[in-house]
Amino acid sequence: MRGKISNTKVDSEAKKLPSLCFLRYNRVMTIQEIQRLREEKPFKPFRVLTADGKTYDVMHPEFLGQSPSGRLIMIGLPDDSTVTLDLLLVTGIRKGIKPGKNDSRRKA
Predict the structure, then answer these.
(1) Residue 51 to residues 69, 91, 93, 108: CA-CA distances in angstroms?
(2) CB of 93 closer than 8 Å to CB of 33
(3) Is the Cα torsion angle 53, 69, 30, 48 positive or negative in sign?
(4) On the CB side of 45, how many CA atoms lie within 13 Å of its CA?
(5) Residue 2, SS3?
(6) Which of 59, 62, 56, 60 has its CA nearest to residue 84?
(7) Are 58 and 75 in contact (CB under 8 A)?
(8) What is the pLDDT of residue 80?
(9) How far apart are CA 13 and CA 29, in angstroms?
(10) Which of 7, 27, 60, 65 is within CB 3.0–4.6 Å of 74 for a Cys-Cys bond?
(11) What pLDDT digit, counting tens, does each position of 56-89 carry?
């Protein structure tokens, strides 16, 4: 049995690792957080951060939509275009951005 690891040994080793190693992506929590921010009264602008480093500012609740499944969100941009994002690519949300600057950035 040289080179084999029993399941019990793996389980006991896994318990020693920090719990953050076992966090998984939670799409439901992300869409619920975005919905909560959109419905906040008064509305406070926020920034959506994506895995490729791009950021998109949501300056008004009407500039944000979602697909029926909740997997996709659509953000209206200042130039009257829209961007559609898969929530699997959303890495974070930054609250408390300045309302005067709608600088949705698309970094190369």
Answers:
(1) 21, 6, 12, 13
(2) yes
(3) positive
(4) 17
(5) coil
(6) 56
(7) yes
(8) 93
(9) 29
(10) 65
(11) 999 999 999 999 988 999 999 999 999 999 998 9
Instruction: Count other Cβ atoms within 10 Å, centred on residue 43.
Output: 15
Alpha carbon separation from 57 to 12, 16, 103 (Å, rounded) = 44, 40, 7
Question: Cα 107 to chain center, whole Å?
Answer: 17
Global pTM? 0.66
Q: How many CB atoms lie within 10 A of CB 97?
A: 17
So what's the pLDDT on residue 6? 47
The DSSP-derived string for 73-84 is EEEE-TTS-EEE
User: Which sign does the torsion angle of CA 45, 39, 88, 76 carry?
Assistant: negative
Q: What is the CA radius of gyration of the chain?
A: 19
Closest-CA residue to 30 (of 44, 43, 46, 41):
46
